[in-house]
């Protein structure tokens, strides 16, 4: 290092994004349930969603889980855009840690409920 030069410090890279929502919008007829949500959850972060009844919390979680499809925007899980994933393949794509659970399809789940 030369005299008078500022000391360099190493900066650790930010943890990878596990979940990223970009411009997510979901409507049910004339009702806008989620409008323009942008969210980043990095690997290892703990995330909670708080808000009043009707603010879109459940809809947002349903979108992330693949139970609903957004009208607009991207849902990135591990860097992969899964917003357009078919509902029958969403469970294995979005919940890879749950491979021990039996495979389900929505038709059977509705019959079961």
Your description of this structure?
There is one protein chain. With 113 residues, the protein is α+β, with helices and mostly antiparallel strands. It has one domain: Rossmann fold. Helix content is 21%, strand content 28%. It is built from 3 helices and 4 strands. It has a 4-stranded antiparallel β-sheet with strand order 2-1-3-4, covered by helices on one side. The longest helix is centred in the middle third of the chain and has 9 residues. The radius of gyration is 19 Å and the shape is elongated. The N and C termini lie far apart (69 Å). The relative contact order is 0.17. The model has no long low-confidence stretch (mean pLDDT 79).
Helix content: 10-25%
| CATH fold label | Rossmann fold
Secondary-structure content class: alpha+beta
> Cα-atom Rg, whole angstroms?
19 Å
Seen as an oligomer or otherwise, the chain set is single chain
CATH architectural group = 3-Layer(aba) Sandwich
CATH superfamily: P-loop containing nucleotide triphosphate hydrolases
Strand content: 25-35%
Report on the biggest sheet. 4 strands, antiparallel
The number of strands is 4
| Discrete helix count | 3
How far from one another are the termini?
69 Å
Order of helices and strands: EEHEEHH
| Low-confidence residue ranges | none
Kindly report the spatial arrangement of strands forming the biggest sheet.
2-1-3-4
CATH class: Alpha Beta
Sum up the overall morphology in one term. Answer: elongated
| Number of structural units classed as domains | 1
